[in-house]
Amino acid sequence: MTSRKKRRSCLQSLKPEEIEVMLRKAGLQPTAQRIAICRYVFCEADHPTAEDVKRWADKHLPKISLATVYNTLSALAKAGLLLELKLSHSDCVVYDVNTERHFHFLDEKTGKLFDVGEEELGLELKLKGGLKARAIEVLIRGTSK
Amino acid sequence: MTSRKKRRSCLQSLKPEEIEVMLRKAGLQPTAQRIAICRYVFCEADHPTAEDVKRWADKHLPKISLATVYNTLSALAKAGLLLELKLSHSDCVVYDVNTERHFHFLDEKTGKLFDVGEEELGLELKLKGGLKARAIEVLIRGTSK
DNA sequence: ATATTTGCAAAGCCTTTGCAGGGGA
DNA sequence: TCCCCTGCAAAGGCTTTGCAAATAT
After folding, report:
1. pLDDT digits (tens, 9 = 90+) for B46-65
2. Model's pTM, two decimal places?
3. Across-strand partners of A125?
4. Quick one: closest CA in B to A117, which residue?
């Protein structure tokens, strides 16, 4: 098993109560919709979009509106529980449960997105003209075998 | 004068006839609208959006439609004369006359975008799991003094 | 009781598309 | 002539917003 897979699986067993605690800590009311969305996003999904979440929710919840999905994801992101990624290959935001500093790899054949750990990409900044870096976003395009 | 400025200024004096030649070489009919858009994009603008181009065109041309602006910019990009950038800080595409391999720097205070030459950022790929890179997109966020 | 959150529909933003008229090759 | 280009308006995809009803503390 690669380190890529390990990183994901560390969150796969969150219980509803743990999600409640997490939401409260983040200052968010643990409503049924939010708990459900978290279960999916943190335990099952891989870089889901709002549409992915909505599709899943329609199967697993009695009712939820698309606006609530957007609001919830955006609230989770604002609370620092998720990263909101706007990548160049797609028009829609994808959410990432990995909030550590990392980069992304897009398999251009399949459209699949992988997290790339800091240790997989060495960066050496030699910026001219007084530019001061604060954060770096990297999308590597290629193929995964 | 920094190298950043030099790179831009090498295109600042294109004459209409030169633009015509460039368009023909690219397989595009040199219509009045296209020539005008090229004058702006190649000689005056700095990472313009379609809206920027439209605004400029409305001041300098008798009439042009937004669709034509989009079509023209997209045709120029398809022809390899421009780069179409979708960056995470903005919902709209920005166009870049610099078609060499390079990266971008966003001044988060001003919103201004700078090109960052390859020599200003060392990259060392150590991808695991059989990922093969083909291209790398980098957006550095920070401040310019 | 009070402040949040939800659902719905409508609107927003950026971009693309369909089609008729116009112009260059 | 024929094909490409233009302009206009409409539609498209994704996301946000306004507001009343429902829910949480």
Report:
1. 999 999 999 999 999 999 99
2. 0.91
3. B121
4. B127
